[in-house]
Fold this protein.
Amino acid sequence: FPVTIGVLFRFTPATFQFEELHTFAPIDGYNGNNILNLGKLAFLNGKLYGTCPEGGANGFGVIYSFELATGIYTKRFDFPAGYNCIFGLTRTTNTVLLGSIAFGGPDNGGLLYAFDSSVDSFSILTSFVDDNVGGNTGVLGYWPLGEPLLASNGNIYIQTNGGAIGGGGALVRYDPTLSTSISDFQYFEAVDGNNP
């Protein structure tokens, strides 16, 4: 299989066996030469859910599912042009998954999103503003890196890599009950750690 396209595989530790489950293709999403997918898979209702950073109808990647019992791969959502999804998904409920777009989006600084697998609907929870293109990042910063974390209190946490007050990003908390994002911590200086 072509190394530049990527595969979904299963590894059995007891026997050290690799088994190819699916070979990605441009129309269904793939991992190409230009962008690495750094994300993890989420298991939900007998299916693995993941993202591809390239391919799909718009060329900017997809959300997909892979049913373990049948081996069926299904493209669930095509990311719009300008969305660069290099991270995986976090399970929240029986149907909803969370993810982040590191770059791009409506305000060019990435976004936090929810995907409802029961109806294949995509919704933006927070759009981050990239001040390098003329906006104002405020206290949230921009370029969220990694998968969102769902805490036991129901809040969702993610780190931004740049911007915010000190320029070094922020720890952002999204409160689903209020539908708002709040900066819990600012990365002010390199001495304290910045640009997570």
